[in-house]
Automatic annotation (TrEMBL):
<protein>
    <submittedName>
        <fullName>Diguanylate cyclase (GGDEF)-like protein</fullName>
    </submittedName>
</protein>
<feature type="domain" description="EAL">
    <location>
        <begin position="24"/>
        <end position="277"/>
    </location>
</feature>
Length: 290
């Protein structure tokens, strides 16, 4: 895929691309063994209900603790792993780790839904529903506590095939969410025909909404449209209290973002649950911030 032309123009020689390709090639050889060497980690970012102001769920976000490069973010290896096919193993590993973590938390009395990101390429994997079913059974996790986040690009390539995979996941009782909504090209008309329960508004809209009326109107109408289609609407990228309060006033269901917490390790999430106002279920939106 390195020679493909496109908007990034790989076919044209350019030293910056060349060094990026070298970096990617050496990452690729490292990625092959990353799972076996236990270098992948799952971080969790809490998601808050905007009606109860308590944490309701967490999103699992993979990180690669590289022995010499430090923490490699998913944006640097997930798209790459999709091209090479390594994503299957990564997705399976993240699913298993998240489902195990659900069980550890349940034993401690922490009941949070877990959302896991599924790559576009995973939806072309006919085994995905069986993998998910097997893991849920093995760790006795109720299917409706698991949510799978898919992006619009995930079903653009072969919508009919992706739809069948989604229907099978839905039949298991797993929840499905459309991630990064608003950045792709699919219509809500199409999405509303999929067995999806949630719409996650892309963070670019949420980050921009307080300073731009058009963006703000997009967020407002997405919430309204989502609700009229019976979907739960989640805002990602909530970076400050003003945005949080604005989303409450718009009737958005859930919020996720740095204002409440960055993605953190499982242990740090437990600490956050003990110490933060959202973990304590005592937050009131218009009370003065601490
Ligand atoms: P995503 O699923 O849309 O995840 C949300 C991303 O937004 C995360 O980046 C998160 O750290 C970041 N974020 C959360 N709150 C804020 C905020 O308030 N402000 C800003 N600026 N950013 C915020 P992260 O962890 O780097 O992940 C990036 C993307 O990588 C994810 O986007 C997802 O598409 C992909 N990804 C992450 N983990 C996995 C995984 O296990 N499997 C797959 N297939 N993809 C993954
Ligand atoms: Mg996501
Ligand atoms: Mg997202
Ligand atoms: Mg995103």
């Amino acid at each position: 895929h390195l020679a493909k032309t496109g908007k990034t123009g790989y076919a044209v020689y350019d030293p910056q691309n060349a060094s990026r390709n070298e970096r990617r090639l050496s990452l690729l050889s490292d990625l092959r063994g990353a799972i076996d060497r236990s270098e992948l980690r799952v971080f969790y970012q809490p998601r808050i209900s905007l009606t109860s102001h308590a944490a309701a769920a967490v999103e699992a976000l993979v990180r690669w603790q590289h022995p010499t490069r430090g923490v490699v973010p998913p944006s640097e290896f997930v798209p790459f792993a999709e091209q090479t096919g390594h994503i299957r193993l990564i997705t399976r590993w993240v699913l298993e780790e998240s489902i195990k973590q659900f069980g550890r938390w349940r034993e401690k009395g922490i009941h949070l839904r877990i959302s896991v990101n599924i790559a576009a390429r995973d939806l072309m994997n006919r085994d995905l529903p069986e993998i998910v079913e097997g893991l849920l059974l093995r760790y006795a996790m109720p299917a409706d506590m698991l949510c799978l986040e898919i992006t619009e690009s995930g079903f653009m390539e072969d919508p009919a095939y992706a739809q069948r995979v989604l229907e099978r996941l839905h039949d298991l009782g797993v929840h499905l969410a459309i991630d990064d909504y608003g950045t792709g090209y699919s219509s809500l008309n199409y999405i509303s025909r999929l067995p999806v329960k949630e719409l996650k508004i892309d963070r670019s809209f949420v980050i921009g909404m307080m300073n731009d009326t058009t963006t703000s109107m997009i967020v407002r109408s997405t919430i309204e449209l989502g609700h009229s289609l019976g979907l739960k609407v989640v805002a990602e990228g909530v970076e400050d209290e003003a945005s949080y309060n604005h989303l409450v006033s718009l009737g958005c269901d859930h919020a996720q973002g740095y204002f409440m917490s960055r993605p953190v390790s499982a242990a740090d999430l437990e600490q956050w649950l003990r110490n933060s106002r959202w973990g304590q279920n005592s937050y009131e939106p218009n009370r003065t911030a601490r």
